User: Fold this.
Amino acid sequence: MKIAIYPGSFDPVTNGHVDVIDRAAKLFNKVIVAVIRNPEKRAQFSLTERVGMLKESLAHHKNVMVDSFDGLLVDYARKKKATTIIRGLRAVSDFDYEFQMALTNRKMAPKIETLFFMTDYKYSYLSSSFVKQIAKLGGDISSLVPKAVREKLKNRKVGG
Ligand code: ADP
Assistant:
């Protein structure tokens, strides 16, 4: 049983995240999308909202689960018996941070591998903060996020 964890803030989930998950779901028996409970990083959406939007957007996948965690990612991965941590790469600007995190995690848990998915060109400029900014300014985000996020943003003034 190959289990992978895809950790992130998902504040909110975008089509870029969903694309990574769609691809990972084909390679692993189980993918756990894990929302980081990080009180230091102020999130726009509550943990419950972020988990809810992910669950709705990923309901079509039988082997994808949504969860949340706090503490060390490698401890959570061990608890879930995951062999792989999934992350996405868009531009060179992602690299430094991702490199540092992957090496730190490997030092702490040498048996857990970090696997990077290169973004699809359609999503290379897409980030959660970009979506929030566009929504705040009244722009059209319909091609950038799943339906569940579109509806949530419609009913709510973002970043006000
Ligand atoms: P974090 O705060 O952990 O970076 P994010 O939700 O912003 O959480 O991102 C989670 C992961 O998804 C990161 O590895 C990020 O690089 C990746 N990611 C975000 N947007 C995209 C995208 N458009 N294409 C591919 N990967 C992405």
Notes: Residues 8-10, 14, 16-17, 20, 87-88, 90, 94, 119, 123, 126-128 surround adenosine-5'-diphosphate (CB under 6 Å). The two ends are 45 Å apart (CA to CA). The longest helix spans residues 92-108. The chain is about 40% helix and 20% strand.
